[in-house]
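Try this one yourself first.
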């Protein structure tokens, strides 16, 4: 093997080592994120409800052959609810761990977090009605 090929091989190994140093912490973070999604899905009734609702809405959208832009609007609305519910769950875990006994400020924090989920769900319902309503009612 020539000198140039050897240098190329060394550069590739160095690049691979650098990539691994960068990826290994990311892989761990990814593992924790997937674990968090699992906790959310399997330990919370609301998450299962949101999953069934999301799959139902997307199923209807596919059945009705809703265009891509409207499907993206539905996905964004669904995502908004999932993010709000996930943050609400995280806030509840943190609040319960930080202050196990009753505290009116913790109650307020939990109520505000739950209220954001309600707002997100309301927005998602409005988007769903605007996107799916006209075709369902034949108002195309």
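Now uncover the answer:
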């Amino acid at each position: 093997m020539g000198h140039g090929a050897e240098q190329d091989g060394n550069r590739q190994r160095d690049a691979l080592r650098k990539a691994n140093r960068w990826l290994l912490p990311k892989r761990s973070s990814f593992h924790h994120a997937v674990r968090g999604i699992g906790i959310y899905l399997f330990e919370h009734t609301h998450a299962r409800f949101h999953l069934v609702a999301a799959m139902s809405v997307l199923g209807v959208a596919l059945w009705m052959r809703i265009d891509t832009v409207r499907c993206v609007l539905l996905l964004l609305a669904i995502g908004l609810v999932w993010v709000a519910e996930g943050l609400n769950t995280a806030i509840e875990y943190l609040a319960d761990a930080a202050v196990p006994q009753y505290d009116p400020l913790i109650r307020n924090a939990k109520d505000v977090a739950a209220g954001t989920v309600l707002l997100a769900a309301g927005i998602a319902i409005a988007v769903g009605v605007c996107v799916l309503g006209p075709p369902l009612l034949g108002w195309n």
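Discussion: Residues 3-43 form the longest helix (41 residues). Helices lie at 3-43, 45-63, 68-98, 104-137.
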